[in-house]
């Protein structure tokens, strides 16, 4: 698709780790997952979209 191979993905992953740090990666992944979930709900035409998800834990 974009011509990304294993070396390119490793370089991108290394840059992300350097910018955000290892401690922030789970938080970023969680936020990205909730964003995708809310986008899918909105695309399906469901009325309720979670703008401010509740904190778990």
Summed up:
The protein has 57 residues and is mostly helical. It has a domain at 23-57.
Helix and strand topology:
Layout: H1 6-20, H2 25-43
What Rg, in angstroms, do the CA atoms define?
Answer: 15 Å
Element order, helices and strands? HH
User: Any idea what the shape is?
Assistant: flat
* Strand content range: under 5%
**What is the end-to-end distance?**
39 Å
Task: Tell me, rounded to a whole number, the average pLDDT.
Answer: 81
- Note the total helix count: 2
Unreliable residue runs: none
- What proportion of the residues is helical, as a percent range? 55-70%
Q: Structural class, please?
A: mainly alpha
Note the main sheet.
none
User: What is the number of strand segments?
Assistant: 0
Q: How would you explain this protein's 3D organization?
A:
By secondary structure, the chain is mostly helical. It has a domain of 35 residues. It is 60% helix and 0% strand. The protein has 2 helices and no strands. The protein is flat and about 40 Å long. The termini are far apart. The model has no long low-confidence stretch (mean pLDDT 81).
């Amino acid at each position: 698709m974009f011509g990304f191979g294993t070396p390119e993905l490793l370089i991108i992953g290394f840059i992300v780790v350097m910018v955000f740090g290892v401690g922030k990666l789970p938080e970023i992944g969680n936020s990205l997952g909730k964003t995708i979930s809310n986008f899918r709900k909105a695309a399906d035409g469901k009325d309720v979209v979670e703008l401010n998800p509740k904190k778990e834990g």
